[in-house]
Amino acid sequence: MFAALTIFLNVLLVLTSAFLILLILMHKGKGGGLSDMFGGGISSGAGSSGVAERNLNRITVGIAVVWSVVVVLLGVATRVS
């Protein structure tokens, strides 16, 4: 019973981790960091945040919450079994 749950949670953890990495890399840089070194500071309208950026922020936070819940559930499932 717990073995199937642990396998499912591990697969879900890998998928959410990969998706979270991709989402974070899609964010534009705020300036002054490594993103400027690779051409991230050339963007026009650096202070403006459009609908797409806000939706990207919401999706990133949602996936981060799912990732955190999966980590906690995986810890509980591992301790119980």
UniProtKB/TrEMBL annotation:
Topology of the protein relative to the lipid bilayer: Multi-pass membrane protein
Any GO MF annotation of the entry: protein-transporting ATPase activity
Pfam families noted in UniProt: SecG (PF03840)
Gene Ontology CC, one term: plasma membrane
GO biological process terms held by the UniProt record: protein secretion
InterPro entries cross-referenced by the UniProt entry: SecG (IPR004692)
Stretch forming the signal peptide: none
Primary location recorded for the protein, binned into one broad class: membrane
Keywords: Cell membrane, Membrane, Protein transport, Translocation, Transmembrane, Transmembrane helix, Transport
Cell compartments where the protein resides: Cell membrane; Membrane
Transmembrane segments: 7-27, 59-77
Described function: Involved in protein export. Participates in an early event of protein translocation.
NCBIfam families given in the database record: secG (TIGR00810)
Family, per entry: Belongs to the SecG family.
Name under which the protein is recorded: Protein-export membrane protein SecG
Organism per entry: Isoptericola sediminis
